[in-house]
Amino acid sequence: MSTALVTGASCGLGADLARALAARGHDLVLVARGAEALDRLAADLTIEHGIKAHALPADLTVEADLEQVAAAACDIDILINNAGAALGASFDRTAWADEQRMLALNVVAPSRLVHAALPEMLRRGVGRILTVSSVAAVGPAWQGTAYGAAKAYELAMTQSFAYSRRVRTSPVALTALVLGYMASQFHVRAGVTAPPPLLTLASPYVAKQAVRAIHRRRPPVVCVPSMRYKVLAGLLRHAPYRSLTMPGLAKDFTTGPVGAHDRDTDTVASGRGDGGNDVPPVGAHRDGQAH
Ligand SMILES: NC(=O)c1ccc[n+]([C@@H]2O[C@H](COP(=O)([O-])OP(=O)(O)OC[C@H]3O[C@@H](n4cnc5c(N)ncnc54)[C@H](OP(=O)(O)O)[C@@H]3O)[C@@H](O)[C@H]2O)c1
Q1: CA–CA separation, 26 vs 53, rounded Å?
Q2: Structural domain includes residue 52
Q3: Catalytic annotation, residues
Q4: Contact 201 CB / ligand 1 (< 6 Å)
Q5: Is the pLDDT of residue 260 over 80?
Q6: What is the spatial distance between Cα 37 and Cα 233, in angstroms, rounded to a whole number?
Q7: Ligand 1: distance of its center to the CA of 39 in Å?
Q8: Most buried of 29, 56, 74, 198 (most Cβ within 10 A)?
Q9: In a domain, 216, yes or no
């Protein structure tokens, strides 16, 4: 029996990744801020699949919380770096405190958890690490925001470690999930319009594909769920960057109206977790205070 730690497991893709891992018999450590939703999911999965699951409530943008999760990550077989969020406004219009939390969540937290988990995995000769990146990492999506750059970091980090000699010659594997539009709380929380239905993937489908990929004997370094996005990601990767920045092709946040992320306000539009409890997005804390 092996144990997987899943960040951002209170709703969306993280909850579906936890379900898919539980269905394969893995014990689970579930991480997010929404403690109630985590407790509910842990109880459901324990009953449904006879596994051990426990909630580890943590705000990954708070250093003390992150260190607690890193301590738990030293002792696991599968690390799923899924928690993530975007700010739906261009970099010139956001408050720095919001950007800092976005980078803490999408860049610092996954790096810290890989730093905690990887040495132990290499020592034991067993382990899988999945980090959820985005199609925004491979092409000009979310122009003018630091979100795409943060997701590009997650992809580059995975590739850098996965292709290193020490990892390549070990049974440990790292995979980046290059994800297109998917139905979840993500867009509501970022305060942007929902993606076009034709291009929107279902989260349980994405989770099953990702979990299947990391269970291969040799998992892929990059996993792109769905044929549509395999083609699109391939085009974005190989077409000249400038040819893809035409209006209509790339969403350019610098041309949008000033909205809830305007740097005069220090908070972004609030989202709700699947559990129905009010859950703040990346740019806000439960108590409304900036840390
Ligand atoms: N949806 C898309 O179209 C799309 C496309 C490409 C990539 N992605 C990536 O996919 C991943 C999953 O996103 P999703 O679509 O499932 O979004 P989601 O429904 O908004 O879920 C985000 C998860 O991250 C957790 N989270 C947010 N801030 C956190 C914090 N400060 N500390 C701890 N946990 C935090 C949330 O839980 P709490 O609020 O309870 O903390 C939630 O469980 C993200 O990395 C996202 O960047 C999404």
Answers
A1: 9
A2: yes
A3: 147
A4: no
A5: no
A6: 33
A7: 18
A8: 29
A9: yes
pLDDT of residue 93 exceeding 60, the answer is yes
Q: For residue 276, what pLDDT is reported?
A: 35
d(CA 141, CA 78): 30
Letter for the amino acid at 8? G
- Cα–Cα distances in angstroms (integers) from residue 163 to residues 78, 127, 156, 173, 184, in the given order: 18, 15, 11, 9, 31
More confident residue, 248 or 16: 16
User: Is 290 domain-assigned?
Assistant: no
- CATH number of residue 186's parent domain: 3.40.50.720
What 212-219 contacts at long range (C-beta under 8 Å, 24+ apart), as own/partner pairs, is 213/130, 213/175, 213/177, 214/78, 214/128, 214/130, 214/173, 214/175, 215/24, 215/128, 218/173, 219/128, 219/173, 219/175
Inside any domain, residue 284: no
Residue 285: pLDDT above 60? Answer: no
Q: Is 98 in the pocket of ligand 1 (CB under 6 A)?
A: no
Instruction: Report the domain count for the chain.
Output: 1
Residue 279 has pLDDT above 60, yes or no: no
Ligand 1 contact, 81 CB (< 6 A): no
Predicted confidence band of residue 248 (pLDDT cuts 50, 70, 90): low
- 123 C-alpha vs ligand 1 centroid, how far in Å? 30
Using CA atoms, how far residue 93 sits from 99, 135, 255, 257, 268, in Å, is 10, 23, 11, 10, 12
CA-based radius of gyration for the chain: 18
In total, the chain counts a number of residues equal to: 291
Question: Of ligand 1's atoms, which has the minimum distance to the CA of residue 280?
Answer: 39
CA 167 to CA 42: how far, in whole Å?
32
pLDDT in tens, 195-214: 899 999 999 999 999 999 99
